[in-house]
Design goal:
359 residues, alpha/beta, Rossmann fold, 2 domains, 8-stranded mixed β-sheet, 7-stranded mixed β-sheet, 15 strands, 24% strand, elongated
Length: 359
Amino acid sequence: MRWQVNQTIPATWLVYCRPGFEADAAAELAHRAEQVGYSGTMHQGDGWVSLELPDGEPVNVLHREVPFDSLVFARQSLVALPASMLSREDRLTPIIEQVVKSGWSFEEVWHETPDTNEGKSLSRLIKALTRPLESTLKKRGALRRKAGGRRLHLFWLDGDCVQLGMTFPGNRSELLGGIRRLRFPSRAPSRSTLKLEEAWHEFVPRDEWELRLGDHMQAADLGAAPGGWTWQLVQRGMYVYAIDNGPMEKSLMASGQVEHLREDGFTWEPPRRLDWLVCDIVDKPIRVLAMVERWLIRRWCREAVFNLKLPMKKRWEEVARCLAHLESTMASAGVRAKIQCRQLYHDREEVTVHVRLLE
C-alpha cells in the first residue's frame, strides 16, 4: 500500500537531542528503524533529528515499536507533521488549521525549542501565543480534558517555522524539552554530582528510592576524588568505599560514612557484596566496561551506574558496540540484568549506563 503525501498525516519521527550530537542521534534512529523494517529520509538541525517515512506512510507503528526508553541520544520522541512556515502577521491560523485537519485531540499543549541560544530567545513570542492558541483549540474541540493523555508539542525551529508533534503516555519524556534541570548543591565537591543525581531520577522510579537508595546501604565509588558522586551516596545515608589515589573533600571524610582507599579502581575488589557500584572514571569505554562486567558477573553489587566517555566520531557505533558486548557477556555468564543507557542532560562527551541485576 502507498500513502499520498499529506500535510496532516504524521509521517515523521522527530527526536530532540543534545546540540552537537545530531549525527549520533540520526545514526541511532536509522539503526533502530532498520531493526523493525523501516527506512526513510533523515533531516537534522541544531538539537533535533527527524526520520521521514516515504510516500507519507504514517510513523505511528514505528514510534510504538521503538520505545523512548530504549533510545540513548534522544531527549524526546514524537510523531510529527511536516513543519509549517508562518506569517508574522498571523502565526496562529496555520497552526490551528493543521491541528484541526489532522483530527488530533489532546489534553495539553507544550511549546518547545531546540536547546540553543536561538531557541531560548523565542520565549517572549511563545508566551504571547500560548493563551490565544489554547483558547481557540478548546473552542475547536482539539484541546479537551479526556484525550488519552496525548500531548501536543509545538517545536519552534525559529519564529517563522514550527513543527507539530504528538506524544503518548508511557512512550515519552515527561520533562519539557526532555531536559531535567537540577540545582547544584553548594556543599557538593564538584558539579559532576549532578550526573549521578540525574541518573537516579532517570533510572530508578521515585517511589522505589527508599527501597533501592536507602539508609545503611553500602556502595563503592571508583575514581571518586574529589567526591562529587560520593557526596550523593552519603546524602542517601550510604556507607561508601571511595577508591581513588587523589584527595577527597575533607567534609565528606568528616561524615564518618566514607572509607577512602588509595587504590586502582580497575583492580580493587570489595570485601563483601555491595548495594551499588558507581563509576565516572575517564578512560576508554571498553576498558571501563570490562571492569564493570567483572563486578556484575561476580555479583559484587546489586546495581551499577557508570559513564562511558565517547570518542569524537561515530559515538553511536561505540555505544552500540559497548551495549551489545555487555548484553552478550551477561547472557554468556547466565546473569539476568536490566540494562539502560542514556545521554543525560548533565552528561557531556559521555553516556550513562545503569544495570540492575535481576535475582
